[in-house]
Amino acid sequence: MEIKNIKYENSEIFYAKVEISLNELENIAFESLSENDKNTYGNFKSEQRKKEWLAIRYIINKILRGHKIWQIKYSDDGRPFFDYLKVSISHSADYVAVMLSNHEVGVDIQQISDKTLKITRKFLSDTESNYFDVNNSTVTTLLWSIKETVYKLNNKRGVDFARDILIEPFDHQKSNFCCVKVNDNITIEVNYQLIENYWLSYSRLS
Question: pTM (2 decimals)?
Answer without folding.
Answer: 0.92
